[in-house]
Amino acid sequence: KKQGFALDRGENEKDVRCIAAPIRNFQGKIIAAVSISGPAFRIDVNTRNNQKEALLEISKKISKRLGYKEKSQREEKKEVKTIEKFSKV
Questions:
Q1: Fewer CB within 10 Å of terminal CB in the chain, N or C?
Q2: What pLDDT does residue 82 have?
Q3: What is the pTM of this model?
């Protein structure tokens, strides 16, 4: 969750790798995902970061077209503090 993407390092299929990123709607809810999959030799440690960054950029563009607006880190921290405050009650 915190990193903003999912990575399959062959847990399902030994020689297949997958990277996925969420697509959010105008309410910020995850409604879909975009992913790339391929043989391990094409999605390896050396290429994975570039592929991940491209995928995250694409997912952000799609989300933006659906009305999603990213919260600033300040808003997120404030929201977490509020949730923590009320969860103790």
A1: C
A2: 60
A3: 0.71
Name all domains of the chain by residue range, CATH numbers in brackets. 6-87 (3.30.450.40)
Q: Which residues contact 50 (CB under 8 A, 6 or more apart)?
A: none
- Hunting for tokens 């809810």 — which residue is that? 29
* Largest Cα span, the chain: 51
The span from the CA of 49 to the CA of 32, in Å, is 22
pLDDT of residue 24: 96
Beta-bridge partner residues of 54: none
> Exposed, middle or buried by CB within 10 Å (0-12, 13-18, 19+), for 5?
middle
d(CA 8, CA 46): 15
Helix (H, G, I), strand (E, B) or coil at 14: coil
